[in-house]
Every structure is written in structure tokens, then in C-alpha cells.
Design goal:
Radius of gyration: 13 Å
Shape: globular
Oligomer: single chain
Helix content: under 10%
Mean pLDDT: 96
Length: 112
């Protein structure tokens, strides 16, 4: 199983960023997937999840209306579109299966 995130970087407050997660080594379309983030020096925070059929995405309250999770089962890809980014969104973002597999993370920094 391999999960590889990309798309992190520096963005100004109010800006947007799209994270991608390339999945391989398992049957992606049969797994629910999630994004989790970790602020430096703090624990992990669940951000969003999407079921295998993209029917009912879920979000932590702090990102509702700003972030959108999506997936392309044909391409084995998971995405997180992040809009109206705020400094408190600065974190390492990880994609994970709704199991035990995690990617290596991608850093998102929100700063002017």
C-alpha cells in the first residue's frame, strides 16, 4: 500500500490550495478515505472523510464550507480542495485509508 500526498506549500491567508493523494497497492475504490492534519507540536486532527462511492463526505466543523474532499476512483486519486485558508489551517496534511495506512504528509503553511 502506498499513499503519496502532494500539493502542499505556502499560501497567503484567504488563498486556496488543492492537495492530492495518489494511491496504489490496494483496491482504492473499495476503501473510504480521509484527510487528517497535524499542527506542529499538537496531536492529529481528523479533517474530512469520503466513502468509497463519494456519497456522504464529512468534515470537521472548522473547515465546513471551505474545504471539499473528492476522489477519482478511475485514477486512484484523493483530493482536498482548500479555500479561504487561515493561519490556523497550517499543518501537515495526511491522507489515509479508513484503516491503518497513511501517507507521508504534505506541509501546508498559511502566512502573509
Amino acid at each position: 500500500v502506498q499513499l503519496v500526498e502532494s500539493g502542499g506549500g505556502l499560501v497567503q491567508p484567504g488563498g486556496s490550495r488543492r492537495l492530492s493523494c495518489a494511491a496504489s497497492g490496494f483496491t482504492f475504490r473499495t476503501y473510504g478515505m480521509s484527510w487528517v492534519r497535524q499542527v506542529a507540536g499538537k496531536g492529529f486532527e481528523w479533517v474530512s472523510s469520503i466513502d468509497k462511492g463519494s456519497v456522504t463526505p464529512l468534515y470537521v466543523d472548522s473547515v465546513k464550507g471551505r474545504f471539499t474532499i473528492s476522489r477519482d476512483n478511475a485514477k486512484n486519486m484523493l483530493y482536498l480542495q482548500m479555500n479561504s485558508l487561515q493561519p490556523e489551517d497550517k499543518a501537515v496534511y495526511y491522507c489515509k485509508t479508513n484503516g491503518v495506512h497513511w501517507g507521508q504528509g504534505t506541509q501546508v503553511t498559511v502566512s502573509s
